[in-house]
Design brief:
Strand content: 15-25%
Helix content: 25-40%
Low-confidence stretches: 82-95, 353-363
Mean pLDDT: 81
Order of helices and strands: HHEEHEEEHEHEEHEHEHEEEHEHHHE
Number of strands: 15
Distance between the termini: 49 Å
């Protein structure tokens, strides 16, 4: 029997807010309800002060929905919109991110804009780090456009272990988690900011990552809620900025560097993707997006330059087929380019003493 939105709402009519409050359905606090392959996901809007009192309601809602025929799992989240200050003064939020048990380093692979090959870079960089003998995980934090299931050729859904803890998927010796494993690949993720933040937090905190030397986080493009949430809630060891050599991409890459610096996350370097194209037939070189722009930008910003990855058909073909080039041709020149970047990243992480979680102030 298929699960419908109407059946979920009917089940939630019997769940009430504390102290004689209305039912969840009549409270106006419910988000859109997402139903995919037996999993039901939605959030309950709260204020920060209601977290403890409405946890009972959240648990009751989860239990009520999971009792429906056809529901394999219900994921209910409490989400709070950021409050605004009524005065003209800027409101400040101070927080100290907490670490994830047994994960030594967490790095973000980011870009200021889409279309620069960030996800392909993150996947191959993770494989290259693993080739150094490290235990590596990959978190696909791009909620609206998850790519890791396709790049790593992973199908199926993660197993629920105990409570709300998920077992990560595995491929090429890596542990991988993505929202793409949990929803229909054809479904449009029409989620507002609070739901996105909750999903990223769950994939960080409610996954059995085990012992990892490094967790590579494939960030969504831009400098919005996802990046700030990650910086708030996780002690990032650093960020890798991916850009093409094109001037328009470099402008956005500059914004990415500025954003991470504002939240006190070290920049591990800039990597130039789609650096140049060498014709496989005649060997002629064409700088389709220009060349050397990212290197020049890294020098201006006084951050490390991690190397150049060419615009290459084998990289595209292996990514589309679910077999990253760094795994399939580890001794090839393309894999070596990723390995050199990985060696630079790991060297910086290990040469820096373990820094305390920074005190982040958002204005």
């Amino acid at each position: 029997m298929s699960v419908t939105r109407e059946k979920v709402l009917a089940a939630l009519e019997g769940v009430y807010l504390p102290e004689g409050g209305p039912s969840l359905v009549r409270s106006g606090r419910l988000s859109d309800i997402v139903i995919a392959d037996g999993k039901v996901t939605f959030s309950i809007a709260i204020t920060p002060k209601e977290v403890m009192t409405l946890e009972v309601t959240r648990a009751a809602a989860e239990k009520a929905v999971e009792a429906l025929r056809g529901v394999e799992q219900a994921v209910v989240m409490l989400t709070a919109e950021r409050s605004t200050s009524p005065t003209p003064q800027r409101a400040k939020l101070s927080t100290r991110p907490t670490s994830i048990p047994d994960v030594r380093h967490i790095i973000a692979v980011a870009s200021g804009k889409g279309g620069v090959g960030k996800s392909t870079t993150a996947a191959n960089l993770a494989v290259a780090l693993s080739s150094l003998g490290l235990k590596v995980g990959v978190l696909d934090a791009d909620i609206y456009g998850p790519s890791m299931p396709r790049i790593f050729g992973i199908t199926g859904k993660p197993r629920l272990l105990t409570g709300r803890i998920l077992e990560p998927m595995e491929a090429f010796g890596l542990k991988v988690m993505s929202i793409g494993f949990l929803v229909d690949p054809e479904a449009a993720m029409i989620w507002r900011g609070p739901m996105v933040i909750s999903a990223i937090t769950q994939m960080l905190r409610e996954v059995a990552w085990g012992e990892l030397d490094i967790l590579v986080v494939d960030m969504p493009p831009g400098t919005g809620d996802a990046q700030l949430t990650l910086a708030q809630q996780t002690p990032l060891s650093g960020a890798v900025i991916v850009s093409t050599p094109q001037d328009l991409a470099l402008i956005d890459a500059r914004r990415g560097v500025a954003m991470f610096r504002k939240v006190e996350v070290p920049i591990l370097g800039v990597l130039e993707n789609m650096s140049t194209f060498v014709c496989p037939s005649c060997g002629h070189r064409s700088d389709i997006f220009g060349h050397g722009g990212a290197r020049d930008e890294a020098e201006k910003l006084e951050v490390p330059f991690l190397g150049e990855i060419p615009l290459s058909m084998p990289i595209r073909e292996t990514s589309d087929s679910g077999k990253p080039i760094a795994a399939m041709e580890p001794d090839g020149t393309l894999a070596q380019a990723y390995r050199l970047a990985a060696q630079s990243v790991w060297g910086q992480l290990e040469s820096t003493t373990q820094r305390p979680a920074p005190r982040i102030i958002l204005e």
